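User: Can you predict the 3D structure for this chain?
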Amino acid sequence: MNNKKISRKREQALAKDTGGRTTPGSGNKWFEKSDAYNSIIRFEDKFTKKDKYSIHLSELKKIEKEALLTNKIPVLRFGFHNLNQNYVIINTDHFFDTGIEKGIKGVDISRKSFTVDSKELNNLYLNSKCIILLVLNFITENRIYFILRYETFLENIEKFYSIF
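Assistant: Here is the predicted structure, written as structure tokens:
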């Protein structure tokens, strides 16, 4: 299956999972951006067929800007297609849990991107007692993000409705 078909299927599944809709043209219109949305969240969806994925601060800023314009919470979902693993990245400003539990791995990032490894994320998921798998601190921009397993995000999505 080519990347365009994979992307379309992922976006449709994302919209269905979250009670939302896909964005026509996958957000290629100037007046309607991102890949999917529901009543409170705007989603950008990325995937790779490799074992590593690079999280770029520019992608996170892009979805944050698009969500701000529509008064929604920005969420970046990314996945490792060949492993059927999906994760979400959410800014701590929009997270429902006010306390960070001890033992969560944190990474200080001084560059504009950070590469995550599918095996490391899956290992964190299997060995973690917290819904937050990893904390990304982009120190030059003073921005902090959490990475969660997508399934965990879906299990807790109603908590976003209560804070928005």
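The beta strands are 21-22, 36-37, 41-48, 52-56, 73-80, 85-91, 105-109, 113-117, 132-138, 143-149. Residues 3-163 form a domain with the Trna Endonuclease; Chain: A, domain 1 fold (CATH 3.40.1350.10).
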